[in-house]
Amino acid sequence: MSFPESTQQAPPTQLAASGAYTRRLRVAQGVLLLFHVTGFIGLAFSKDPSFYLQFVPLNLLLTMLLLLAFQPDRGTAFVVFCVTVAAVSFFVEVAGVQTGRLFGQYEYGTVLGWKWMSVPLLIGLNWLMLTYMGGILAEYVRVPSFVRALLAAVLVVGMDVCIEPVAVRYDFWTWQYNVIPMQNFKAWFALALILQVYYNRTYFVKRNPLVPFVYLLQLLFFFGLGMLNR
Q: Which spans of this chain does the record mark as coiled coil (predicted)?
């Protein structure tokens, strides 16, 4: 008995391509899991966390590169989006460090690598990664675009809430009087919301199967370290 073509199995080449894609995704997840678990154990239990801190820039770069590898559309619109978000967020951070009027009085340590105008060059990349992940995750919710932007901004700030105690503990950056001001989270939300509105107005394929895994992995990483260091 023959079946209509639409109910038959996918061609072998299509199945093979799907299987290869899934294997690449699992490999990427495994690599990221290995880096984060190793870093977590080293920072939480080592007597010399400085050895593990030197790999923080590498971990950030690797994570972003793997996210980009699973972004299906890397055309002009996507490149412009990445450059714009990284540049805008970097110079907002410069203004924040130089004036102390945006996020509060803070300064960066040496962990995040090379600095320009007292701000690590990787900060723009970090904002790009968080903006991108927040936007992709919000795509799963079918609501008006501005509500999605609000939701994505909350996800970005939620990550910062987990990062802040760890960042202060390991000298990513330091706050005046060692107090994380509420002003910081307000400014993070404002900037994150602006970037998410921009994200919603750009046109590229907004789908990435690695994003949920990375967001959850980083959330658990920083939350776990924060709890252990209380």
A: none
- Residue 115, strand partner residues: 120
Residue 63's closest CA among 186, 221, 227? 221
Give CA–CA dist 171/224, Å, rounded. Answer: 17
If residue 117 lies in a helix (H) or strand (E), which one and from where to where? none
Do the Cβ atoms of 229 and 46 come closer than 8 Å? no
- pTM of the model as a whole: 0.91
**Cβ neighbours of 22 (radius 10 Å):** 11
pLDDT, tens digit, 9 for 90 and up, residues 42-76: 999 988 899 999 999 999 999 999 999 999 999 99
Structural domain harbouring 161: 5-228
Number of domain units in the chain? 1
